[in-house]
Structures are given as C-alpha cells and as structure tokens.
Amino acid sequence: MPIGVGSNLHYLVGPGIAFVVLALLALFMRWAFGTGDGRRRPAQPPGDELLTRIATLSRRESALALRAVLSDAGIRSTIRYPAALRADVLVFPEDADRARVLAATFSPPE
Fold it and tell me: Which of 5, 87, 90, 110 can pair with 63 through a Cys bridge, CB separation 3.0 to 4.6 Å?
C-alpha cells in the first residue's frame, strides 16, 4: 500500500530511512576500522623503551659535551629535551653501566 501524498506518514519515512542508513554506516565503520579485540590498550609512555637515561643536565652544551665523551668511549647516545632547561642523555641498556661510570666522572664545561 503506497503512502499517499496527503498522508502524514511520508514525513516520517524519509528521516527514518536516513537514520537507519546512518546507523548501518556507523556500525560498518566501527567494524572496519576498529581494533578488533574490543579492549582498550593502555597508553604507552613516549619512546623510551629501547633507551636508558644515564644523566639529566640543565644545559644543552653540557649534554653535548657528555655525549662527546660517551662517543669517544664508543658508546652510542642521544639527547632528549623533555622540558626547558633540562636535557636527558640516553644510551642503550647494554652500555648503561659503562656510561654511568663515565657520567659520574664527567664535569660539565663552564
């Protein structure tokens, strides 16, 4: 039975179809782009999984000087600047003990 032009039902059919289509589209998008396991993963701390902090210095120049000392000893290192007036010197875990010994004897340039 077709909905007549004079009937009030034709005002409900269009929005009803639109709502159903949007709901189906939302379900499809959730299925297609979801994580798949239904669980939320905890937020990971930013990028320190592979590196170990051996020193925190207040000046960029001091951190660069310590990094040069470590490089002369054959230890690979990098510097991270997490905040103003703070520089962390990071090395790989297998070199951390040697790097800490060198860092303990290091005196920053003035």
Answer: 87
Asked if residue 50 lies in contact with residue 90, where contact means CB atoms within 8 angstroms, the answer is no
Residues 53 and 92 sit within 8 Å (Cβ to Cβ): no
Q: What pLDDT, on the 0 to 100 scale, is given for residue 76?
A: 94
68: amino acid identity, one letter: A
Give the 3-state secondary structure of residue 55. strand
Residues 98, 75: contact at Cβ < 8 Å? yes
Collapsing DSSP states into helix, strand and coil, what is residue 38? coil
Residues belonging to the chain: 110
The burial of 98, by beta-carbon neighbours within 10 Å (0-12 exposed, 13-18 middle, 19 or more buried), is given as middle
Q: Within 10 A of 29 (CB to CB), how many other CB atoms are there?
A: 10
